[in-house]
Amino acid sequence: MPSSPPRRPAPRSAHLRRAVPGDTNGVGDAFVRGLRMGRVERVSVVTGGAHADRGSTAVAVSAVGRYVVFVSTATNLVARPEPQADWRLRRTS
After folding, report:
1. What is the reported pTM?
2. DSSP annotation string for 15-37
């Protein structure tokens, strides 16, 4: 019996307004969309859900869909003395 391919989340980065409810920061964000339920989750957020203060892009998802990695210049995702593009790793919900 053939097995079906895994249904892991699909990564996206977008400069769309209102891609998810409450997305009002006006910068590009990193998203994942669950293929089973179709739910879109913005992952470029501060712990607790606050907006990133700068843009994010280049999204990739781990093989089992548990982790997502993206590039961001946001200064409030990780404490940095100066803004710089950096990779971020986040566990999806």
Report:
1. 0.71
2. --TTSSTT--S-S-EEEEE-TTT
Residue 68 tokens read as: 């997502």
Q: Convert the pLDDT of each residue in 4-56 to its tens digit.
A: 455 566 656 555 556 788 888 888 888 888 777 778 888 888 888 888 888 88
Rounded Cα distance between 31 and 25, Å, is 14
State the distance between the two ends of the chain, measured CA to CA, in whole angstroms.
31
Count of Cβ atoms closer than 10 Å to residue 85 Cβ? 13
Q: What torsion do the CA atoms of 20, 22, 28, 32 make, to the nearest 10 degrees?
A: -30
* Residue 73 and residue 26 in contact, taking contact as beta carbons nearer than 8 Å: no
From residue 17, give the alpha-carbon distance in Å to each of 22, 28, 29, 66. Answer: 10, 9, 10, 26
Q: What's the pLDDT tens digit per position in 46-78? A: 888 888 888 888 788 888 778 888 888 888 887
